[in-house]
Each structure stands twice: as structure tokens, then as C-alpha cells.
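Annex B. Sample input.
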Amino acid sequence: MSLVENFKKIQQQIRTACNRGEREPDSVTLLAVTKSQPPEVVRAAVDSGQILFGENKVQEAKAKIPSCPGRLRWHFIGHLQSNKCRDAVELFEMIQSVDSLPLAQEISKRLEQAARSMPILLEVNVAGETSKFGYQPERLLAELKERCARIFVACAN
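Annex B, continued. Sample output.
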């Protein structure tokens, strides 16, 4: 099956699922993952109407994104090492895999240096799999309580 055929099939599956769930198909955003795919494949997806792409390696994105059309939107979806935050902040409009407070703080520092903001998603390892990245749920809740308490105290003073 060609990329164009596969893209049309996925769009139809989205429409079908939305009809079953009484949801507007326009409310669903398809993120095409470009892992190990060359810029030519990205361009073919763009020709099919795709503009949002996900990449899981900063180094690969650093080489690929400049070779792709400039109007595309890119999300980082892989495990991010703190030493790659500066590049990630420059390349992506969202980071979907923040798995620790130190990583969130490093991203925040790099965003501040670049004078910009960016949405992030926290990755939580709810299954507790040791082979997977992500916050442990209890650690995340404790860190959020601690951070929110500090913010509340700072605002009250």
C-alpha cells in the first residue's frame, strides 16, 4: 500500500470512529511519526495534506527538519536527555515526553534563554514497567503537591 493510500485509509478510519463516537472528525489531529524516514517521505505525506509530524530522536530531527517544507509543525515524542534540551527547544513546538522534574526544569531554562514558551506533556509510567520511561505516579503527585504548595506560599506573600 502506498503512503497516499495508507493516509487516506487512516483518514477514513478516523471519520468512522468519530461517527461512532458522535464527534467531529475535524476535532482529531493526526500526528505522523517520521522515525527513520527520509525527508522525501515527509514531503509525500505533506502532499497528502499532513502538516503535523513527530520525531523521537533529536539528532535525526536536527538533520531532517531543515530538509523539509518550512510550514510543518513538529513534536518531540521520544525520551529526551537533558543535554539535548537546547536543540529540542529550537526544533519542536511541543515536547510530549517529559519524564522528570529535572528535565522539565532544564526545558524551562532553555525556553527562557530562547525567550519563548512551549507546551509539554508529562509522561507517566502507570504500569510501572522498568523498561519504560516516565514518572512514577506517586512521585509525580508528590512533586506536583510540593511545587503547587511553594507557588501558593510565594503568591500569598
